[in-house]
Amino acid sequence: MPTRNLEMRWSTARLDLAPIGMPDSSSLLHVFRDPDVRRYLLDGESVSADWVAAEVRASEQRFASGGGGLWALRPRSEPSVIGFVGFREFFEPPEPQLLYGLLPAFWGRGLATEAAAAACRFAFDTLGWKEVRAAIDVPNTASGAVLARLGFRLARTTDDGTAFYVLEAPPPGSSPAVGESANG
Ligand SMILES: CC(C)(COP(=O)(O)OP(=O)(O)OC[C@H]1O[C@@H](n2cnc3c(N)ncnc32)[C@H](O)[C@@H]1OP(=O)(O)O)[C@@H](O)C(=O)NCCC(=O)NCCS
Prior knowledge:
By secondary structure, the protein is α+β, with helices and mostly antiparallel strands.
């Protein structure tokens, strides 16, 4: 069961989650610039420090206005940022989507699933969302596997190769639909 304090910092079994802030900018730039992280997430494009700063500001605004922002991921009690998870708006009209990414050295351990489960739980329990949405490039099978492990349902696939997924909020009082065990 993740623990959450009033600053919206979370801990899962293996990760500390803290809302991204300006002090994280250079670490986040390192994550977003990694070629394997940006392959699908950013269509391979690189990003600038200004882009990261704008993302941090936008995330802070979303949290401040009662919406979902992004959290930096750190191994528990360690200072280094290894990735991110949370919500960001895409499409027109803007629609919050679940987003996650880890430096490749941390892939294959179930950490993305663990972090994304905590983010979905926050969306349902704290933000009161009825559903969480996610969109991935069809070839991004690792990301699709994360969504499948969390119980997301494939809603539709578009001709341009984008797959749209939905996870409905668990019924009140039920055991967690998106467990923190992150078992594959
Ligand atoms: C998408 C992404 C986060 C997936 O990372 P991942 O490491 O494959 O996903 P998980 O953290 O859930 O790890 C699952 C793997 O860990 C394994 N694993 C090992 N130990 C585990 C544990 N204790 N618990 C659960 N799974 C474990 C699972 O068997 C699975 O292995 P597999 O890949 O061989 O099937 C990663 O590919 C990434 O950062 N990509 C770039 C950014 C991106 O494209 N994001 C998606 C857009 S939203």
